[in-house]
């Protein structure tokens, strides 16, 4: 606690105990970072995969489709059923792209 001399000094010279006046704030020019420039639009990886798949021969599409289904569905079909499915896809009696789409949709639904 301040002594009696402090109070006497404060009463006689209150300006000595006031905070100094605030300095004028100098306007600081802040640079706003420019939004990042987007690089050339990257190709959609799904689109690239679809284009690559479409460029394959019917046999290659059939093989890739059966391989993908084996990974996803595993033992739900036996080896003979996968082979028959591959045969049907090779002669394009069944659309491989449509089958892949429907299989992915079923997988996301859990059916």
Features:
111 residues; mainly alpha; 5 helices; 0% strand
Brief description of this entry?
The chain has 111 residues and is mainly alpha-helical. It is built from five helices and no strands.
Q: How does this structure look, described?
A:
With 111 residues, this protein is an all-alpha fold. The chain is rod-shaped. α3 (58-73) runs antiparallel to α4 and α3 runs parallel beside α5 (96-109). The chain contains 5 helices and no strands.
**Oligomer, anyone?**
single chain
Residue fraction in strands: under 5%
By DSSP, the count of extended strands is 0
Helix content: 55-70%
The 3D shape can be described as rod-shaped
Query: Major beta sheet, specifics?
Result: none
| Residue runs with pLDDT of under 50 for 5 or more positions | none
- Mean pLDDT across all residues, rounded? 81
Radius of gyration: 38 Å
Can you lay out the helices and strands and say which pair or pack?
Elements: H1 4-12, H2 45-55, H3 58-73, H4 79-90, H5 96-109
